[in-house]
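Model it.
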Amino acid sequence: MQIFYTPDIDVNPELPEEEAGHCIRVLRLAEGDGILLTDGKGFFYKAAISRAHPKHCEVNILEKWEQPALWNFNLHIAVAPTKNMDRMEWFAEKATEIGIDAITCLNCRFSERKEVKPARLEKILVSAMKQSQKATLPGLNGMIDFRAFVSQPFDGRKFIAHCE
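Modeled.
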């Protein structure tokens, strides 16, 4: 079953415009059809389409359940984006599929890329979350200086992958 991302489903029982268009125009679903939703916060929703319109598809929530966490700790990965953005996008996709909790982009001393487009990465994260049937969308933090990142207070363990 196709999964649709609806970040504010608790307050607004309607698919976002892009998701509604895919549901109604592409998949040709109609009123009364069942769909599966996720809010990206760990919950799945079984719903039925109550009003089928390509720009605002309304749904009735039939059931809600929480997806159990994969592990009992928080996994946050910080990475310096490479010059080739395709590699960063691939990394974000695969990291989401394995179920990490957050990604931070680092600006290091020898970084070739000084900025990233968070909107593009966000779309990739949402797509990977739906594809891998996860209910939790990883947090995406913008670019931060390496020294500032490692000096932030942190409860837990930190590891740095290094070639030497």
